[in-house]
Amino acid sequence: MGDLDPVVILAMAARAPDGLVIVDREGLIRYWNRGAERIFGYSAAEVTGRDLDVIIPEKHRQRHTDGFVAAMAAGTSTYGDNDLLAVPALTSDGSAISIEFSVVLLTDSEGRASHVGAVIRDVTARRAQEKEVRRRLLEATPNPTAS
Predict the structure, then answer these.
(1) Of 29, 34, 115, 147, which is most buried, counting CB atoms within 10 Å of its CB?
(2) 31: helix, strand or coil
């Protein structure tokens, strides 16, 4: 890390505008920064020690759990450094949002998978704009079968 004080790094993580979330091998939230508070509407105190399911829509929970358990058992993730995942998520008031995130599998001193970290961004507004652009393009495209 060079000459950078670890306290500075921790301060950066705590105040980053993107959500930084770390869960342990049981899927319990162990770190939740200010960005995650802003995105999901839960304070760190409200979610620390809770299952990550608090932000995962019900219909996606089993798939997430299966993938998470497999990654922790294998000690590796199918998602690499260049993968940006896009999924729906839930806020504290139950609203659905669109998020993009990258994941990092963290290991303990013996090299075993111990935690998963995620860097999360709310892309709900961008997704809505993209959907609107597609809708306008479809409206502007002549339909050759309509006569």
Answers:
(1) 29
(2) strand
Cα atoms found within 13 Å of the Cα of residue 135, Cβ hemisphere only: 6
* Cα–Cα–Cα angle for 95, 99, 105, rounded to 5 degrees: 125
Euclidean distance between the first and the last CA atom of the chain, given in angstroms as a whole number:
67
Task: Give backbone dihedrals phi and psi of 124, rounded to 5 degrees, phi first.
Answer: -60, -50
- What does the buried/exposed string (b/e) look like for 137-147 if buried means 16 or more CB atoms within 10 Å of the residue's CB? eeeeeeeeeee
Mean pLDDT of 109-122: 95
> Tell me: the pLDDT tens digits for 118-143?
999 999 999 888 888 888 888 888 87
What CA–CA distances, in Å, run from 83 to 19, 34, 78, 94, 103? 17, 24, 9, 27, 8
Q: Is 88 exposed, middle or buried (0-12, 13-18, 19+ CB in 10 A)?
A: middle
Q: How far apart are CA 48 and CA 93, in angstroms?
A: 18
Question: Would you say 120 and 100 are in contact if contact means Cβ atoms under 8 Å apart?
Answer: yes
Q: Are 138 and 49 in contact (CB under 8 A)?
A: no
